[in-house]
Design brief:
The protein has helices at residues 6-23, 27-31, 45-58, 124-140, 142-147, and strands at 63-65, 76-86, 96-97, 105-120, 151-157, 161-162, 172-187, 198-202, 208-212. It is of the alpha+beta class and 215 residues long. The chain is elongated.
Length: 215
């Protein structure tokens, strides 16, 4: 069984989610329905939601691990590992499936925290739009996340701000802190006592003789 790589799993989850919405843009009517409710419809309304849909359909939104310093890459979604630590409170007996010498698979749960950074240029509205879309993907695709190995995931977020290192490029950033339990696995072969080891020795007549090792 493979180790779960949280950065790779989260990258796939968001990338697939964006692709699905691009193929089904009417989903955004529900995501941004709040803009059409009274009294929001006075300043926004259906026309504003239509504008968001058009922008999302026409705009390439790459999902990357870490992120590019090239301002032409905005908007983009970047994923960066914040912390990953073994969760001692959830450790199994001996960290094994089937405790004892008969164990076949070693396992340990880890708490992974990742930062999903939303980068957008031009205006802060695009940052907000992408934030709501990513939140929708994270909620809507919980089962897919579980299948990718991201268990019991939750998230929190910060408000958007100007990226101080790129003020000239007018880059806005909003960060989502994503937290999940992931499993790490390793082969746990049966323990072999040194007294049980035998060495095969071949004679000149190619006859095999097994000699037990003594310690």
């Amino acid at each position: 069984m493979p180790n779960v790589m949280p950065q790779v799993a989260l990258h796939r989850l968001i990338q697939e989610g964006i692709a699905i919405i691009k193929q089904n843009p009417d989903v955004l009517d529900k995501v941004f329905e709040y803009y059409t409710c009274e009294p929001m419809d006075t300043d926004y309304g259906a026309a504003y939601v239509k504008q968001i849909k058009q922008w999302f359909i026409e705009t390439k939104i790459p999902v990357v691990q870490a992120w590019s310093l090239n301002p032409q890459k905005a908007p983009q979604i970047s994923i960066k590992l914040a912390t990953e630590q073994e969760d001692e409170t959830k450790s199994a007996i001996g960290d094994f499936w089937d405790a004892g010498e008969e164990a076949e698979i070693g396992t340990a749960p880890f708490i992974a925290q990742l930062d999903i950074a939303i980068h957008a240029s031009r205006n802060s509205d695009e940052t907000l739009w992408l934030y709501e879309i990513i939140c929708f993907i994270l909620f809507k695709r919980k089962r897919r996340a579980e299948k990718l190995g991201l268990q019991l995931h939750t998230f929190s977020a910060t408000d958007y701000n100007r990226d101080n290192s790129k003020l000239a490029d007018n880059i806005f950033v909003r960060t989502i802190r994503f937290r999940a339990i992931v499993q790490k696995f390793w082969d746990a072969e049966d323990y072999i006592d040194i007294d049980d080891v035998e060495v095969e020795v071949f004679t000149q007549d190619e006859e095999c003789v097994k000699i037990p090792v003594k310690v």
